[in-house]
């Protein structure tokens, strides 16, 4: 069995922050007695990712997702524990051979020069990564065609729509054909059509090249459309690892079934509430079987079993300990 392409073993990382008092007297006090505090962003996280896998990282703001991405890409060093990519590469050493094999797209950090066409940035990246001209031209033509931005290559970035800029940021991360692609909030603020285009492209790229993709997003559609496995992080700790189906099955707690029938029921059983002529809600708390003839049922859905509801439950202060 091959070794995982990413291996994180009991990694920890803490930020040191400083508090600043207001006013001149506060500034004078801070000059000699600066107060600092330590914030644990990643706490004892272990995680393995296999080559060709798409892993979704889920968590609320400040949960530690982006910090974990920064540990894997070498932006930050782990305080304790071990983070390795490609079996033996320590990311924070930032060896050129390692950087050549990863691509990074951070939603809050742009690679594109605002007043220049995207092509100028991509040509600069061609020189940084020493990409042969023919290979660069062919790959760029493929990427821009698949993401439907070929006509915008020579347009200044400031004149592009948000969706077009996001697509060019993605192309910047992919231009050197990395083996691992890190995407932090890749579809934030863009329309559903552009999202669908990016989903289709990334799934096809993963299928054709076995590129490993690590994805963080607050848009659960990104995770549901792309991720083969998810890891949920809360307050710096990993609280779940598995499939999205497994996540929903484990944490869904509301036993209400929404049932649509092919016509009104002549008799409404106990525990069933009629919403409209063909729409019913069933309290399944104590039921082993449905009290409605299956031949009349068109669809059955469990309310609050969607990923958004599960994550709201997990990230609330009142979320139950598991």
UniProtKB/TrEMBL annotation:
Q: Which family does it belong to?
A: Belongs to the ABC transporter superfamily.
Q: Which residue intervals define the domain ABC transporter in the entry?
A: 26-260
Domain of life from the UniProt record: Bacteria
**PROSITE patterns registered for this protein in UniProt:** ABC_TRANSPORTER_2
Its keywords, alphabetically, are: ATP-binding, Nucleotide-binding, Transport
InterPro entries to which the protein is assigned, alphabetical: AAA+_ATPase, ABC_transporter-like_ATP-bd, ABC_transporter_ATP-binding, P-loop_NTPase
Say yes or no: keyword Nucleotide-binding present. Answer: yes
Entries under Pfam families matching the protein: ABC_tran (PF00005)
Q: Which GO terms describe its molecular function?
A: ATP binding
Q: Do the record's keywords include ATP-binding? A: yes
Q: What is the recorded name of this protein?
A: ATP-binding cassette domain-containing protein
